[in-house]
Amino acid sequence: MDFLASPEFWLALGQIIIIDILLGGDNAVVIALACRKLPPAQRTKGIIWGTAGAIVLRVILIAFAMTLLALPFLKFVGALLLVWIGVKLLAPDEEGHGDVQGSDKLLAAIKTIIVADLVMSVDNVIAIAGAAQNAGEHQFLLVVLGLLISIPIIVWGSQLVIKLMERFPMIITAGGMLLGWIAGGMLVTDPAFSNPDKWQWMLKLPQTDMIKYGASVAGALLVLLAGKIIVARRAAAAPAEQQG
């Protein structure tokens, strides 16, 4: 149990909870839409069983993702995806949930929740696997704890979380930068860049704290800059579209 005294463990757990909450808001909306036609007596059952099924599938996906990140270039690809997810968090597309079908049958609603969560969980899986990568043998425990803590917040506290994000937009900005931070650290530790004995044709990066922190800072700043540029371009294009 020595790992409980490790600051790295608690830092990674905090990152996983923040990622789950920031990227899980849509999942709460999907759960509400899928169960909206259920009788009141079955609605709670639909939410509980649908969420439980989604959690189990997500844990399995994350376990696979953490294993795959040990292969060359997958951390590199994962880092690029995390940057993209972070930028989308800062400059979101206009998307709706009108295609989520409600059902008056309990099993159909549970199936809808699980399938929709599975489709929407790619960003969470990559981000959580990246956040847990430095926890050594306790990665899986981190993932499970993070999900157990954050899922109830998403399901039952989603409205509060959404209101906090609306009132304090800096929370979303900080979340996007956190994903960029994780992406930077993930990229430089890819085996293709960090293993001096294999893939010797690739550029090798010293695995020092300075390199890792420098890459993390660069990733956070990249997400912030890209997000601001996209938002500024959309704002500049809006008057032109209205005039046209």
UniProtKB/TrEMBL annotation:
UniProt similarity note: Belongs to the TerC family.
Pfam family, one: TerC
Segments passing through the bilayer: 12-35, 47-67, 138-156, 168-193, 213-231
Keywords assigned by UniProt, alphabetized: Membrane, Transmembrane, Transmembrane helix
Topological type in the membrane: Multi-pass membrane protein
InterPro entries: Integral_membrane_TerC, Integral_membrane_YjbE
Designated name of the protein: TerC family protein
Record localization: Membrane
Organism of origin: Acidovorax facilis
